[in-house]
Amino acid sequence: MTPVTTPLGPEILPGTREYQWVASIVEAVERRTGRPSSWNRRLYEELGKTTGTAQIDGRMTIRRDVLDSVMHAYDATEPLSLEETGAARLGAMHVVHETDHHQNSVGDENAPDAVAYTSPEGVAVTEGLAEINRARIVDQVIRDIGMDKAVPRINDLTARTFYAGYETGVQGVLDGLQQISDRSPEEVLTAVDRAPFAQRYNAMADLVIDSRLDGLMPPEHRSQIRLRLTGPLREELAKLAGYDPDSDLPNELADQARGTAATAVQRLDSELADIERHYRQYGDNPPRMPMSAADRSLVERIETYYGRSTADLETAHLRQFLDTGTRVGLGGGAAAGAGGGAAGGAAAGGAAAAGPAGAWVAHRFGSRPFGKE
User: Fold this and answer.
1) Which of 119, 147, 241, 364 is geometrically suited to a Cys-Cys bond with 142, CB 3.0 to 4.6 A?
2) How far is it, in rounded angstroms, from Cα 95 to Cα 324?
3) Four-point Cα dihedral 16, 21, 23, 28, nearest 10
4) Where are the beta strands (DSSP E) in the chain?
5) How far apart are CA 2 and CA 187, in angstroms?
6) Do 299 and 290 contact (CB within 8 A), yes or no?
7) Strands of the sheet with 11-12, listed across from one edge
8) What is the pLDDT of residues 83-97, one digit of tens each?
């Protein structure tokens, strides 16, 4: 169930019942959501272990045994068992899921701030959102194509896939984003789901930035703050990809994912608190938050890629360097002579207390603590 390009099995031709069934579901999903899909109307048998795939080039695959279970349900002259009915429902769920993939774009994977959809964190959010969207409409889609009449009780069953961990984990993060941003659940889902695969974590960060940091954080700091906010989400949701479909049960995966999502939201909230604290303490014209050399390099590549100015990054680097030097200089004074060090520290402390934080930072930036031009 991943949006990839993989080896294809035999083509399932438009004149077959199997093809017509798949096409009817895709069309029902498009009508229900009001969004076209990129399915190119080419359908193939899936040869791998997965139920099927939504191919990047527009083709779709589905395993032959899945199609056979659906056709068996349609053709049955005797009441179906729960297992047989469940197999037919899983087939419909699969096609709805893959259609969701085809309703979204991959985005620019070459962008420095992109998340590859084949990475663990990319797979987690892509598959999780597809499952969330599938769960919202699958019953209606089954009714739209008349499958509920042909397969009695099909909508009375609850079937869970091995993507239950992705679904539960991503939903938990969306719930957390809704609480943090004070946006409605629908607004949060739409903002993240409609973003290209490569930018969905940035869409999560933007929800937080636009709702909690608007007017507090300078707009040119967005790329850096996005990195800080997406970090814990990416790290935690990536853990959802470490499941074994041969041994892990869907309910167990969902239980594990709840804890993972809770940790992700807690870490996000903690990171946000640090960011808000930084910007509030400086007031107008706040400096950038401290960055590692690696983060600064990445932010510079992001800004350059999108054609934005990087002038303030060098200023921020110098500010951070000089601030560190000032602290080292004060410490050195104390070590060299208790009297001189204490006096220097008192003078610096007095200046900090006497003026606003922003003025003190500007003063330190303008000084040369190492006495060099």
Assistant:
1) 147
2) 57
3) 160
4) 11-12, 43-45, 52-54, 60-62
5) 25
6) no
7) 11-12, 43-45, 60-62, 52-54
8) 999 999 999 999 999
